[in-house]
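Its record is set out here:
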Amino acid sequence: MRTLSDHIFDLIQNSINAGAQNIHVVVEEDIPNNLFKICIKDDGHGIKPEHLSRVKDTFFTTRPRGKRHVGLGLALMDATCQRSGGNLAIDSEYRRGTTITATMKHDHTDRPPIGDIPDMFASLMSSTVENKILWTLEHIYNGKRYTLKNRATKDDLNLFSYTEPGAREKLYELIIRKEEEIHH
């Protein structure tokens, strides 16, 4: 994974595959405390207790035979966190949901760049049409934050649907403005 946005996007696929209907993503940058934190919380089917201790193992997967035989997302994120002076915590209750919290030192040389948060958030929110997921996306930068919820944001942009021509571009521009607000 080249960027943290790539990691986030990959981990969210786990939530989608787990049948989550609500996914909450928080990206937090706390420069004074040298903290970079990513939290992904979902209401999917969760992880069975007997699998929880193995989900960071590169060669462990619960996928049926015939599909990919390795699970890389959590293993790669765990390695990134460890290289960057942090930790990956997984809290899951079977049939209730999962919370993944990745922490890193913000200024660590081995921490990948954040990537294109506006593009990632816009992609996630505009994908809602097909999978009916309710998204809550937050970015916190030194205590300043913005929060986007796909249904409310669609209404704020006067959109009937994210499939309308130009909808993704309007969403992307809104997120760019929100990013500028928290960084100034």
Observations:
- The longest strand covers residues 22-30.
- The CA atoms of residues 123 and 168 lie 8 Å apart.
